[in-house]
Amino acid sequence: MYLIPEKELYTVLQIFYCARYKEMASADLVHELEFNDVTYQFEATNYQIRSDLLLANYKDALVKINENKKLLSGVSDESELKFLKSELESLLHYAAFLQNPDDSKAHKFFGRDHLLGGLTSLLAGCYYAKLDDYETALKKLHPEEDLENVAFGCYLLLLLSRTTEAEKYLKKNVNNSSAMDTIGYNQTSSWLELSKYGDDLNKSYYHYDELSSSSNTESLKCLVCLLTAHLKLLHFPEAQEVLDRIAAFKADHPQSLTNWESDLLINQIALKFIQSKNDEADVLLSELKAQNPDDAYLKDLAEKQELFDTVVEKYA
Amino acid sequence: MKMLTKFESKSSRAKGVAFHPTRPWILVSLHSSTIQLWDYRMGTLIARFEGHEGPVRGVDFHPTQPIFVSGGDDYSIKVWSLKTKKCLFTLTGHLDYVRTVFFHHELPWIISASDDQTIRIWNWQSRQEIACLTGHNHYVMCAQFHPTQDLVVSASLDQTVRVWDISGLRKKHSAPQGALGMSPMGVKSFEAQQQIPQQDIFGNTDAVVKYVLEGHDKGVNWATFHPTLPLIVSGGDDRVVKVWRMSETRAWEVDSCRGHTNNVPCVLFHPTEDLIISIGEDKTIRTWDLNTRTPVKQFKRENDRFWLIAAHPNMNLFAACHDSGVMVFKLDRERPASTLFQNSLFFVNNESQLQSYSFGGKEASMPLLSLKKLAVPWNKIRSISYNPAENSILVQSGENEAGTYSYVPVPKEAIGAADASPRGQGKATAACFIARNRYVTFSKVTHKLEVRDLNDNITKAITLDSDVKDIVYAGPGVILLMTPTKVVSFDVQQKRQIAEIQVNNAKYASFSPDGKYVALLSKHTITLATRKLESIMSMHETIRVKSAAWDDSGVLIYSTLNHLKYALLNGDIGTIKTLENTLYISKVSGHTCFCLNRKGSVEVVDIDPTEYRFKKALVNKKFGEVLRLIQHSNLVGENIIGYLEKRGYPEIALQFVQDPETRFELAIECHNLDIALEEAQKLNKSGIWEKLGKEAMSQGRISVVELAYQQLHQLDKLSFFYLATGDVEKLSKMEQIAESRGDSSSLLQNSIYLGSVEKRIELLNQAGLAPLAYATAKTNGLDEVAQQILEDAGRQSAPDITFSVNSTAVLQPKVTKPIDYPLRVASTSFFEQALTGNMEHLSLEQEAEDGTVSETVSGTAGVEDEDLFSDTVAEEDEGWDMGDDQLDVEIEQEIEEDKADVSGLPGELGAWTRNSKCAAGYIAAGVFEVAAQMLNKQAGVTNFEPLRERFFQIYQASKLSFPSVDDFPSLPAYIRSNPDDSVKAAPFIPGRDQLEPLLHEGFRLFKTNKLQYAVDVFRKIIYIIATLVVHDQDDEEKCREVLTLCREYILGLSIELKRRSLPSSDIKRNLELAAYFTRAKLQPAHRVNALQVAMTQSFKHKNFAMASYFAGEFLKIMPSGSRAEQAKKVKSKADLISTDAVEIDFDPYAEFDICASTFTPIYRGSPYAVDPLTGAKYQISEKGKLCSITQITTVGASASGLRILA
Questions:
Q1: Which stretches make up the COPA/B TPR domain (chain B) (predicted)?
Q2: H or E segment and range at residue B681
Q3: Nearest to B112 by CA among B16, B25, B205, B200
Q4: Which of B240, B570, B650, B896 is the most exposed place for a label (fewest CB within 10 A)?
Q5: Among the four given CATH numbers 3.20.20.70, 3.30.465.10, 2.60.120.200, 2.130.10.10, the one describing domain B3-331
Q6: CA nearest B501: which of B540, B533, B539, B538?
Q7: Strand, helix or coil at B96?
Q8: DSSP B999-1054
C-alpha cells in the first residue's frame, strides 16, 4: 500500500526528503497547508516529529506526539485507529531510545514479532541499525507495505556493499508506476544510481542537479550528492563549481544543518588529491579530524597508516 | 514540406509517365518514340517498348491486368503486354497527335484526347472505338474519366475545360454489374452487349457535354477531377492554375492560383492531402493549399522544363516528366514520429494526434493530444521524445529555418485529442530529452545545441561543427551527432566528444536494450557498433533501409522498403519476411514485431525468430540451444543448409536434408560413413560408390570399402583388398570368378595372391606358355607336373634352366581376421552424439559467448599440441631468455595468493584488485601489502617511506562519501578511471596530468639554480610514475621517457651538488665532477649550463685542452650570443696552450656511464649494477645499496620491470 500524496502531503515529503528538517520542524502545518483529511495531517505531523528527532529536539517531538494523539479522536475507522496509534507509539519509543540507548521499553517494543504500520517497522529497522544489528534491522522492515521501509532496506544493503541485492530489493518491492513517481522512490533509486556507474550514474547526476537547481528543493545534502556525482563522473571543473555553490549556500543559509560536513570534507579531500593539491587536502583532513574525530573515514585512514608502517618495516 | 527524391532517370525528353498500381514500376514515354519501364525502387530499367513512330505523349497502366496503353504523334493508340513485352494491338482512328490515354478504372475502356479536336473512348477488349466526343474546337490536350462517376473532363487549347456525361455510354456498352474487365460475368454481359448495334461514331447521344468551363485566357493543357470532392483543377498556357467546383446542375470557377512564370502543362490534386500540385515550363513544381489556393512551396529544377506529373494511385509518390528524364518523389516523410518508453510506444498518427500503444495489451490508446497546431503547416511531426518523469513530450516538426520544437505535457488519461498547450517552444531542427529535467534542441541552421531545463530556459549553449545535421539521444546526458561522414558520441554536460565512427550519411540510430550496441542506419548501409562506437560490422542493402530494432536476444531486426530482415553481430544476415507495405519497426519481442505503418497506426507482425536464433546460437557455440532448435523447430531450406556447410557444420545440416544426394555429400563432408552408406545404397551410382569407397578407405572401414568395390565391380581392387586383409576365402572366390569370366589376367593375379601354383601352371599351359608353365612347376618343386608339361610338349629333355638356390615360393596371404583399421578417426561431433541420443557424456559447459572459444576447448587443444610437439617445445624454451617471464610468473603467483586475502574488500574495491595489473590499483583499493610486493618485484622498491604521501594521495583520491539516510552512516562511493559501466572497474589514479607541470617546475628550478629543489621535483615525478596507471602504449612510452629524463637530471644535478660541496682544495675531483656533469643527458638548453661549468672550471684550473673541448661542445649547442662569445674566447685562448694542468679521470672521446652513487666513470665492458626502476647505472660495488637517484629502490635488485599499462 502506498499513499498517493495529496498536494499538501507532497510538500511535506519534499521538504523532509530534501533534508530541510529545521524548516519542517518549525512549520505551522495546520495553518499553512489546510489539510482536508485528518490522516494526512497525522502523517505530516509524524514527519515533523521525525524532523525534531533528527534535530535532537526531543521535547518538541514529544509535544507534537501528544498533539497527534489528539487527532486520533477524529479517526472513526477502528483498524486505521489501531494502525495510527501503533505508529505514534513507535515514535515515542524511538525518541526514548535516542535519548537513552539502554531503554528497555524500546527494546521490548521493537523486538516484537508483529509490528503494525509502516512507520513502526521503519523505526524498528532504525532501532536495530543504530545497534549495528543490520540483519535484524532488515528483517524488521516491511518493504511490501511502505516505500520508506524499502528505502531504508536499500540503504542498509548499500551500506553492507550488497549493491546488486539492493537493486533487486527496490525492483521487487516497488513495481507500480504511481510509486515510482514519488520523491521517496526517486531518492532511493538515486542512492543506488550514485553507487553505480554508466547511465545510472548519469541519471543520479540529473536527479541531484534537478533538486539542487530549485529553491524549493535545494539543500546542502543535495549539493553534496551532486558533488559526489560530478566527482564520480570525472567532472572535476563542475565539481569545483558545486563547491563554490556550497560555499554560497552556506553563506546564504548560516543556520543550515552541518550534518553533511564530513561527507563534504571527504569529497573535497578527494578532489584536492585528484588535483594533486596534497597540502590543501591535508588541511581539510585536519579539519575533518577536528570536526568529527570518530568518522569512519578517519578510522580507516588510521588503519591504512598502520598498514603502511608495517610495509615500510617489512622492506626496510 | 520537403521533396524527397526517390528515383531519377536520365533520358531524352519525357512526355508521359504512369505508376503501376501495385508494383514499383513506372512507364515513361519519351519524345524519342521509346517507352521505358523502370523499377524505381531498384533504379533499374526493366524493359523498352518500341513501336510508335515519333513522340509518345500518353501512357497508362491497366489497374488490374498486365497491360498498358500508349498514344503518340503517329495518331495511334497501342496496347502492350507487360508479360510478353510486345504490342498486343493498335487502335487507330484519331486523325492527329494523341495527347493522353487513360484506362477506365472499372470498364474495359480507354479514353484518348487528340489534336484532331476529339476525345475518343475505346473498348480494349473488342478493340473498337465506342464513342467519339466532339465539341472542342482546338486540340484536346487531355481527357480523363472521373474516378467514380460517369463523367469525363477534358482540356483544350480552345481555352475551355469541358465536363462530359457518359452515363449513356455506360448504359449502352457495359453490364450493370460493372467490373466488366474482371469478372467472367462481366465478360459475358459485355458479349451480350455486343449484340446492340453500334451508334454513329460521331453521334454524341451517349456522351453529352455537361459543363463548359471558361476562364482561362489561353489554351488549357490539363484538367483533372478531385478524387473525392466535386472539384476540378486545370492548368493552361495563361500560366494559371484554376480550381472549379461542380454541383449537379452547374460548375463554376472557384479561384486561380498564380505564380507560374510559364505555361502550366499539367496539374493534379494530392490524393490524400488538401494540396494542388502543378508543374510548369518555368522548371518548377509548385504546391498550393487547396483550401486557401495560396502557394505552399515550390521546387525548382535548374535546366529542365516539366511536362507532366502523375500521382501514385495508392502511395504517397509522384512522378514528374521533364526535359531530361523523369523523377519520382514524395512530398514530406511518411515515417510516423514515435518514441519508446518501457513497455509502451508513443506515436503520432496521420491526424497528427499523439497516441500510446501498450506492447503488453497490444492495444492503442485513444488520441491523447492533438499536435496539429504544433506541426509546421504541410509538415509531419518529425520526431517526439518522451519524458516519463514529467509525463511530457518534445515535439519537433519542420526543416531548416522552419523547424520548430515544442515541449508539451501529456494528459495522464486519454480524454480525446485536445489541443496541446506547449510549455516551451522555439526554433530547432531536432530536439530530445537527455535527462528527466533537461532537453536539448539543435538547429542545423545555426549549428547551436542548446541544453534547456523544463522551464525552457537555456542552461548551456554549445556551437557544434557545421557538418552536424541531426542529433539522436544516446543515453542520459549523451547524444549522437550525425554528420555526413561520421557519427560522434557527445557528452552534453562535458561538452566533449566521447567517441566517433566513420559512417556516411547515417540518419537513424537504434540501441540494443542493454545499451551495449548501436545500429546506425544510412540509406543503404547498416553499421553495427558498440556503444563506444567501435565498429563491429557494416553491411550494404540494395533496397533502402527504413528502420531497425534489437530483439531481446541482441539480434538486430531491420526493415527495408519491402522486407523484414535480421542481422547478427558476426555479419550474418537473412530475410524474415516480405512486406506488402513499408513498415517502421518499433520493438521486437519474441515472435512479435511491433511496427508503425505509413497510415500512422501500429501493426503487429508475427515473425519466426528460429532461423536467426539458431544461427546466433551456432555462432556463439551455444550448442545446447542449437540442439533444442533442431529438435523443436522446422528449420528447413537450402539457405540454412548452405549456411551450415559454409560455417563448417555439415553434421547439423544433415539433420535438415531429405534429398539423398545432398545427404550423401554432407555425410561425406562430416565423415559420417553410416549415413553415407545408407544414402549410397539408395542412390546406387558409380560416382557415389567411388566417393564412399575413398572415404571408407581413408577411415579404414574395410567392410564399406569392400562393399564399394563390389558395387563398382572393381575386381582387381577387390582381389588386392582381400590380399591385404588376408581374406583367403574371398580371394579364392575371386579366383573362381576370374575363371568363370575367362579373365586370364585376373586369374593369374589371383593365383599369385593365393599361391595356387597348379592353377597358375594350368593357366599358363592353356595360354600356350608351356615353357613358363614348366618353369613355374619346376621352381615350385612340382617335378612331376613339369615332366608332364615336357611330355605334352613333345620334348624329351628338360630345357637348360638355371634356378636360384635361394628362390622361395611366393608367400600366401596370411589369414587374419578382417577388422577395421582406422586410418583417420572420424569422431562424432557434439551434435551427432546428441542427436543420436547419447547425452550422457556431453557437457554444455563448453558454450562460449560471441564466438569466443571456451577455455575448456582451447585448453584441451593446447594440451594436445604440447604433447605432440613436446620435444620441440623443450628445445625452443632453452633457446629463449626466459628470465623476465619467469619472474613475472612468480610475481603473478604470489599476488594470486595475496588476492585471497583481499576477498573481504567491499565490492568495488574487490573489483579493482581483480582487474588491476599495476601496483596503483592495489594502492587505491587499500591493499598496500600487495602493492608493495608488486613494486618490490617489478622495480626493486625497498624503501617505501618516501612513497607514503603518494600512496595516500592515490588511496584518498578515489574515496567519496555521500549522505543518504540522515542520522545513519553515509554511503561510500568510489571514483573509477572510467565512469562508463561497460569498462572493467578500475580506480581513478591521480598524477598523470601532473607530470608535465612538474617537469616544467623541475626545469624552472634548474634554471634558477635551485638544484636540490629541482632534484626533489624530479624524484617526485619518479614516484608518481612508479605508481601510475596508463591506458595506452603511447602514454606508457611517454612515461618511460620522462622516467629516463628524471634519472638524467637527478644524476646531473647530484653531481653538480656534490661538486659544489667539495673543498676548494680538491681541484681534481672538482674538475672531474664538472666534466661528468656534462655527460648527463640533459636537454640542450640545460646541458649548456653543465658545459659552461666544466669549461669555466677547466679554464680556471688551467686544464686548457679540456676547456677547449667543453667550449667546442658549448658552441655546438649555442653558436651565438654573449655566452657563446665568451666560450669562443675561452676556446681560442685554451687552444693556444692546449695542455691540462691537472690530470682527471675523464676521456671526452670514450663512451662511459657515470655511477650514480660514486660519480665515477663505468667504462664499456666494466661490470656494473642497475637500478631496476630508472635504469641508472652503478659500480658493481654499489649493488644492494639504496639507489641514490630514486631513494626507494635497491641497486641491482632482481626485478621484472615496472608495469604501468592497464
A1: 638-786
A2: helix B673-683
A3: B16
A4: B896
A5: 2.130.10.10
A6: B533
A7: coil
A8: HHHHHHHHHTT-HHHHHHHHHHHHHHHHT--BSSHHHHHHHHHHHHHHHHHHHHHH
What is the DSSP code (8-state) at residue B904?
Answer: G
Query: What angle separates helix A220-232 from helix A199-212, to the nearest 10 degrees?
Result: 150
DSSP B398-464: --GGG-EEEEEE--SS--S-EEP--SEEEE-SEEEEEETTEEEEEETTTTEEEEEETTS-EEEEEEP
What whole-number distance in Å separates Cα of residue A238 and Cα of residue A246?
A: 12
Report yes or no: B731 and B719 within 8 Å, Cβ to Cβ.
Answer: yes
B996-1182 to CATH, choices 1.10.4160, 1.25.40, 1.10.3470, 3.40.50: 1.25.40
What length does chain B have? 1206
Q: Average pLDDT for residues B140-169, to the nearest whole number?
A: 94
Instruction: Give per-residue pLDDT as tens, B621-645.
Output: 777 777 777 766 666 566 677 777 7
Residues of chain A positioned with their CB less than 8 A from the CB of B982:
198
CB contact under 8 A, A221 and B966: yes
- Separation of CA B1101 from chain center: 75
Are residues A220 and A250 in contact, defined by beta-carbon separation less than 8 angstroms? Answer: yes
Largest CA distance in chain B: 144
- Contact list in A for residue B963 (CB cut-off 8 A) is 19, 221, 224-225, 259-260, 263
Percent of the residues in chain B that have a pLDDT greater than 70, as a whole number = 87
CB pairs < 8 Å spanning A and B: 187
User: At residue B1166, what are phi and psi to the nearest 5 degrees?
Assistant: -80, 150
Q: For residue B299, list its beta bridge partners.
A: B285
Q: Which residues of B touch A200 (CB under 8 A)?
A: 981
Select the residue of B929, B980, B994 nearest A276 (Cβ to Cβ): B994
Q: B72 with B55: CB under 8 angstroms?
A: yes
Q: Answer for the pair A73, A62: CB distance below 8 angstroms, yes or no.
A: no
Whether B3-331 shares its CATH topology with B336-484 is answered: yes
Q: CA-CA distance, B118 to B141, in Å (whole number)?
A: 10
Half-sphere exposure of A203 (CA within 13 A, CB side): 19
- The mean pLDDT of chain B is 85
Provide the sign of the torsion angle of the four alpha carbons A47, A49, A50, A51, taken in this order.
Answer: positive
Q: Give CA–CA dist B307/B154, Å, rounded.
A: 17
Considering only alpha carbons, which residue of chain B is nearest residue A263? B961
The ranges assigned to domains in chain B are 3-331, 336-484, 503-607, 759-809, 887-994, 996-1182
What is the DSSP pairing of strand B369-370 with strand B418-419?
parallel
Band (B373; pLDDT cuts 50, 70, 90): confident
Residue of A nearest to B977 (CA): A234
Whether residue A246 contacts residue A227, with contact meaning beta carbons closer than 8 Å, is answered with yes
Strands B392-397 and B430-435: unpaired
B1146 near B1018, Cβ under 8 Å?
A: no
Alpha helices in B471-596 (DSSP H): none
**CATH code that applies to domain B503-607:** 2.120.10.30
DSSP state of B902: G
Report pLDDT digits (tens) over B936-950.
999 999 999 999 999
Could you give phi then psi for residue B262, rounded to 5 degrees? Answer: -155, 180
A148 and A126 in contact (C-beta within 8 Å)? Answer: no
Residues B509-565: tens digit of each pLDDT: 999 988 889 999 999 999 999 988 999 999 998 888 999 999 988 899 999 988 999
In B, minimum Cα distance to A98 occurs at: B967
Least confidently predicted of A23-32, B74-83, B212-221, B796-805: B796-805
Architecture of the B336-484 domain: 7 Propeller (2.130)
Q: Residue B829's pLDDT band (boundaries 50, 70, 90)?
A: low
